[in-house]
Amino acid sequence: MALALAILIWAIVLASVVLFTGEFGWFPPQISAHGDAMDAQFNNTLVVVAIGFILAQVALGYYVWRYRDRAGGRVVYTHGNAKFEVATVLITAVTFVTLAIIGQRVWIDLHLEDMPEDAVQVEVTAQQFAWNFRYPGPDGQFGRTVPRLINDQLNPVGLDSGDPASKDDVVTLNRMAIPVNRDIRLTLRSKDVTHSFFVPAMRFKQDTTPGLAVPGHFKALKTGEYEIACAELCGLQHYKMKGFLMVMSDQEFEAWLKERAEF
Amino acid sequence: MMRLTNYLCLPVALLAALFAGACGSVDIDEEGMDEVDGTEAPTVVTRVDPATAATVTGKVYFEGDLPRARRLAMDAEPACAGLHTGPVYSEVVVPNDNKTLQHVFVYVKEGLEGMMFETPAAPAVLDQKGCIYLPHMLGVQVNQPVRILNSDPTTHNVHPTPRNNREWNESMAPGIPPKMKKFPREEVMIPVKCNVHPWMKSYIGVLSHPFFSVTGGDGSFEITGLPPGEYTLEIWHEYLKEGVTTQKVTLAASESKSVEFTLKQAS
User: Fold this and answer.
1) Would B10 be classed as within a structural domain?
2) Of the candidates A18, A13, A100, the residue with the CA atom closest to the CA atom of residue A62
3) Fewer beta carbons below 10 Å: N end or C end of chain A?
4) What is the domain range of residue B60?
């Protein structure tokens, strides 16, 4: 019986390894300039965690079999091995801190790297349960916003018409267009609760927090339409908080922006 | 040593008390209507003699510039966009060609003190169709049933955000039976929104009497069946708040009078 249980544990481990190493298409398409680095970070983490997982499960199966119930066997009480425990905790700590440090490089590239002057600016404002996207218009400057001016039909982000910079700002709902092969500078905000701006194909996920303007950026390498989701449970209709990222050519982007400005 | 159950007693008791308190104020009757305590039934219902009943009519005009109507962007929700053949525009400020306004709630604010009016049994209807609320503005009497429909092939959530009545927020999947609701306290106005489709908004005015109206495509309103007397009429618009918003009117038996209101943007 103990051997059967041990074999079952090892079979589950083997099946898990096959599932994760096989090419089963469980990653969404990758269209982002930084996506390969993000995927590499993910895979490195997965490999390290997998090694720990396999070692632990193989040992578990072994001990299930080794210390099975046997006639005449005597129970031995042990306090464990302090040196072994300290060593395993230290190895685990060093491993995960190292992974975190390596991961910070990708994160810094995504959030703190300087953007070129011609980067397209998009402000993302989340609300229960929709995404507002604002473009600065031809003047390249976002206008001032005032919360008390917010009106979901006329003025979703509260643009202050008294500020000349706000006159040409373009605000769209649930549809974000960007030009392909151009740097996009993001500013992430929230009107109400914490949301998470998640674009799986761009390998980008960042919380939006009320009161904060969180910077970020990405660059899409392939045209098409991709899903935007909220990755932070934000209320009853969280699952309906869906948008679309439309990656298009420069000309199509300019035409789209012009059309939306007339809404 | 204190047992674990002793530690659990206080939070369990608090939760039980909270739950009992919440349940104590709401009864669900057979039709699924929420009955909220706190409103006394009228003792003597006022009957208006049709032979002497008076009428107030009028129009609501606007002055100056109005905000530009915005196209509602429904294209991220094909279930909504596909229900319209042309563009749909915001309903916040809807001017008519004759310099009048749609969607203005007109009601008797003063002059009916001490009178009680029968609550209609027929429900008022609020539909969700093409991902907009129909009608955009609605008047009901206290405790009058409101029948809420979802005629769309998509899920909405109906979320009134009152100040004097109880707030609720309920999903309505496609094909779901209508919801029947009541508002037990007077309130002008209760905003109703759909959190999934931020452009969807409606307003419900709840009054203890039936003397209210909403302006239509020619900016006019009509309030009939008033007992003779002196009244203060008030108007409410969701965006335009300045201008002539109240009027006093004295009505003799069977008299019909016309009044005008004017609204403009805040300076």
Assistant:
1) no
2) A13
3) N
4) 46-264
